[in-house]
């Protein structure tokens, strides 16, 4: 989800709710403690220079159980970060501490924002020598042609 997409969704909501993919909700008294621009310059294992830019939201579960972040307040924080930091319309990455600090992609299911698990991957598989995954087929799906098959008395074996 991009920054523009969340800005378009927020005005239609009564509450801001974040949910992990496993169904567990971020406690409703969470805070958005940071919105920032994160730039990652790196080289992959194949020697290719890369650059990723993301908008980062940090969620914090505080002990002030009366706190509720309303959509208008989050929209105000986003607008302020755009003005002060010059943040553009990039993909959003969310930091949230469950058992450890996790980084999540953001999605929306029509009611809640979903924190989607991120996975690692090699960006230069051809340079690493990682074999391509072989296509799996069922032997029962192979076509049998009596003329091209070896039979015990055909003399081909």
Any descriptors?
6-stranded mixed β-sheet; alpha/beta; elongated; 157 residues; single chain; 6 strands
Trace the largest sheet across and list its strands. 1-6-5-4-3-2
Q: Which class of secondary structure composition applies to the elements?
A: alpha/beta
Count helical runs: 3
Separation of termini? Answer: 59 Å
* Main β-sheet description: 6 strands, mixed
Number of strand segments: 6
Low-confidence stretches: none
| SSE succession | HEEEHEEEH
The radius of gyration computed from the alpha-carbon positions, rounded to a whole number of angstroms, is 25 Å
Shape label? elongated
What is the overall pLDDT average? 88
Question: Hey, roughly how much beta strand do the residues contain?
Answer: 25-35%
Helical percentage: 10-25%
Overview in brief:
The protein has helices at about 5-10, 70-85, 125-130; strands spanning about 20, 30-45, 50-60, 90-95, 100-110, 115.
Notes on the structure:
The protein is of the alpha/beta class. Helix content is 17%, strand content 31%. The chain contains three helices and six strands, in the order αβββαβββα. The chain has helices at 3-9, 71-85, 125-128; strands at residues 18-20, 30-43, 49-61, 92-97, 101-108, 113-117. A six-stranded mixed β-sheet has the order 1-6-5-4-3-2, covered by helices on one side. Strand 2 (30-43) and strand 3 form a beta hairpin. The mean pLDDT is 88.
């Amino acid at each position: 989800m991009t920054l523009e997409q969340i800005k378009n969704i927020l005005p239609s909501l009564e509450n801001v709710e974040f949910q992990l993919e496993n169904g567990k909700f971020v406690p409703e008294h969470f805070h958005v403690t940071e919105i920032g621009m994160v730039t990652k310059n790196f080289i992959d294992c194949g020697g290719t220079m890369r650059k990723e830019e993301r908008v980062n939201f940090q969620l914090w579960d505080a002990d002030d159980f009366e706190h509720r972040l309303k959509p208008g307040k989050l929209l105000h924080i986003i607008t302020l970060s755009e003005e002060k930091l010059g943040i553009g319309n990039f993909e959003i990455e969310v930091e949230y501490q469950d058992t450890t600090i996790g980084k999540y992609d953001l999605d929306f299911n029509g009611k809640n924002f979903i924190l989607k698990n991120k996975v690692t991957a090699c960006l230069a598989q051809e340079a690493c020598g990682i074999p391509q995954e072989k296509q799996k087929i069922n032997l029962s799906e192979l076509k049998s042609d009596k003329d091209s098959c070896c039979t015990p008395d055909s003399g081909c074996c």
